[in-house]
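Still learning. Show one?

>
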Amino acid sequence: MAGCADASGSNLRPTITVAGLVSNSTAQPVPNTDATVRSYAPNGCGTSTIIQQLDAKTNANGIYRVDFVSLVAAYSACIRVTVGTTSRDTTVLNLPQYSTVELNVTVP
């Protein structure tokens, strides 16, 4: 059928969005910088096997955003965002699909 979307396409999979502001020690946004976002088991941030990893670049306002595929209805993970040598973690438990996690990072 012409014009029908493929329902199995990756752009239609349920996601968990991780987004935030990267700023410096004077609270100024840090544009065009690399951020790595990883998810681990909820109690294994940085020590257990990485479940998913995505790289992002901040926009002109210092904002990054990635979308992890959520294969379960209640998403639980420890999420770590790393910018340079600075990391910030948060643990989320039983998030519904299509939720957004805000994780800001302040770099020196």
Summary: The chain has a mean pLDDT of 90. The beta strands are 15-23, 34-40, 52-57, 63-69, 74-83, 86-96, 100-102, 105-106. The chain has no helices and eight strands.
